[in-house]
Amino acid sequence: MVTVIDAENLLLGRLSSIVATRVLAGEEIAIINAEKAIVSGNRAMVIKEYYTKRVRGSVEGGPFYPRRPDHLVKRTIRGMLPYKTRPGAAAFRRVKAYVGVPYELKDVQAEVLKDAHRDRLSSARYVAVGEISKVLGAKF
After folding, report:
1. Which residue in 17, 86, 114, 125 has the most C-beta neighbors within 10 A?
2. Burial class (CB in 10 A: 0-12, 13-18, 19+), 3
3. pTM, rounded to two decimals
4. Stretch (H or E) spanning 6
């Protein structure tokens, strides 16, 4: 059984750490509305950091950094997993991220993580992952 998590208004880092812990325990997780997850911080600073990650390296050799919001969310989760080991790679394969809500998950009740919700922010400074993706050049 797949656990569906709605990422709308959830802090990306907290969402990623919770998901990483749960998939290492053997759970399968699908994240919907990945473009509506948020990254806390000053808008200009956050976008500059992601742009720097995107343009780092060479075209031939990498490191390669994604543009699309669902791939950005998965990349953040990957950073919290030991993905180069066999259990970590198996855990990473149990994570799916989607832009919007896919047809096959439309009728499933989505879980909302209270520990990762935007209400935990002390300030109103944040950027949606979808906005970051558009600046990086994603077309979704």
Report:
1. 17
2. middle
3. 0.91
4. strand 2-6
pLDDT tens profile 110-140: 998 988 888 777 677 899 999 999 999 999 8
Residue type, 104: E
* Residues facing 117 on adjacent strands: 10
Q: What is the DSSP string of 43-100?
A: HHHHHHHHHHHHHSSBTTTB-----SHHHHHHHHHHTTTTTTSHHHHHHHHTEEE-SS
How many helices (DSSP H) and strands (DSSP E) are in the chain? Answer: 5, 5
List the one residue out of 64, 69, 58 whose CA is nearest residue 36: 69
The DSSP 8-state label assigned to residue 41 in this structure reads S
Tokens of 4: 């569906």
Give the integer Cα–Cα distance in Å for 30 and 77. Answer: 12
DSSP state of 136: H
